[in-house]
């Protein structure tokens, strides 16, 4: 364990050293990359995610998620294996995009709205790109393929659903005799759970807590975006000519927006560009991984279920995207 920690610290030291060297050697490029990351956060992430984060904090703390989706509980329990509260986290995460699904999972677990088993299961498939990001940035701005919007939605969400089924089956085999992830607890357990939940603060205090929590989270995410924007610029500068056409893949693994732009600009066939773009959009990259680790760390949830789910989801998306482009070539 100690050797692993030392290796991680050595890698971190090496990465920080290289990044500082890049900032000193190429200050203009580093500044532009930092500005791009800042504007991405300010113009996109801040106005789209912040209101949802504030309102979601209120919904979860007031216990409204269960009330809103209780009428549809049997349907989602059968289709997704989720409780009403877990369904709320999945649906809103799907609508808002990275890393809202992971954050809501952590918040729901921390507020004792879902069990740890359901939270770990939810982490495997709840963190996804938003429909707006996929249709606008990926398909319209980068690939110039808006005609494939509906097909891309189908590919991305079908691979996500297959991922949920795979981990639901694994959870059922691992926990035979126990409750399924979204199975409702007994009335006795619910009463005990309610006793453990402290009384709600006043309306003003509750709103203040929700706003401060949302601003703290969104500020952390902004820091990660700026840092990884500079890191992507450094990687592109140092390894762009050496890696050739493999450079966009390295950038896509690191940070998706920079990687998607690099893939679109590369001299690759349209089928390869589409397949890689869909795969990296589903995977999320190391920047999303760091953001996810931050938002679930507050709830003390492990990162491994998210990693396993994303690797399967990304692989399935790559396969389905490749099959889709092969099919349309014969039509």
Give a concise summary.
The chain has 331 residues and is mainly alpha-helical. The chain has 16 helices and no strands.
Folded structure, characterized:
The protein is globular. The model is unreliable at 184-196 (pLDDT under 50). It is an all-alpha fold and 331 residues long. It has 16 helices and no strands. The chain has helices spanning 2-25, 27-61, 64-69, 73-79, 84-96, 100-110, 116-123, 131-142, 149-174, 187-196, 203-243, 247-254, 256-265, 270-283, 285-297, 304-330. 80% of the residues lie in helices and 0% in strands.
Main sheet record? none
Global Rg: 21 Å
Structural class: mainly alpha
The global form is: globular
State mean pLDDT (0 to 100 scale): 83
The end-to-end distance, rounded to whole angstroms, is 55 Å
Question: Uncertain regions: pLDDT < 50 for 5+ in a row?
Answer: 184-196
Series of H and E elements:
HHHHHHHHHHHHHHHH
Share of residues in strands: under 5%
Give the total of beta strands.
0
Total DSSP helices: 16
The level of helicity is over 70%
């Amino acid at each position: 364990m100690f050797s692993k920690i030392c290796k991680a610290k050595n890698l971190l030291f090496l990465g920080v050293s290289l990044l500082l060297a890049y900032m000193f050697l190429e200050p203009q490029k580093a500044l532009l990359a930092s500005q791009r990351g800042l504007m991405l956060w300010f113009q996109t992430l801040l106005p789209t995610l912040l209101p949802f984060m504030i309102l979601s904090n209120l919904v979860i703390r007031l216990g409204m998620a269960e009330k809103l989706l209780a009428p549809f509980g049997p349907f989602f329990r059968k289709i997704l294996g989720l409780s009403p509260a877990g369904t709320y986290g999945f649906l809103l995460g799907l609508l808002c995009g990275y890393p809202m699904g992971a954050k809501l999972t952590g918040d729901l677990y921390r507020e004792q709205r879902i069990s740890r088993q359901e939270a770990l299961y939810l982490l495997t498939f709840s963190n996804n790109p938003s429909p707006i990001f996929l249709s606008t940035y990926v398909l319209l701005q980068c690939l110039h393929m808006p005609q494939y919007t509906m097909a891309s939605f189908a590919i991305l969400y079908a691979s996500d659903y297959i991922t949920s089924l795979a981990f639901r089956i694994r959870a059922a085999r691992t926990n035979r005799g126990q409750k399924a992830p979204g199975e409702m607890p007994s009335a006795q357990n619910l009463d005990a759970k309610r006793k453990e939940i402290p009384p709600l603060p006043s309306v003003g205090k509750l709103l203040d807590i929700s706003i401060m929590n949302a601003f703290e989270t969104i500020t952390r995410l902004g820091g990660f975006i700026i840092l990884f924007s500079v890191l992507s610029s450094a990687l592109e500068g140092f390894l762009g000519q050496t890696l050739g056409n493999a450079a966009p893949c390295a950038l896509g693994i690191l940070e998706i927006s920079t990687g998607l732009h690099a893939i679109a600009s590369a001299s690759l066939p349209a089928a390869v560009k589409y397949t890689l773009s869909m795969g990296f959009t589903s995977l999320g990259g190391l920047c999303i991984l760091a953001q996810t680790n931050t938002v679930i760390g507050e709830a003390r949830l492990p990162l491994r279920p998210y990693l396993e789910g994303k690797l399967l989801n990304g692989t399935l998306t790559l396969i389905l995207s490749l099959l889709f482009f092969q099919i349309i070539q014969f039509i």
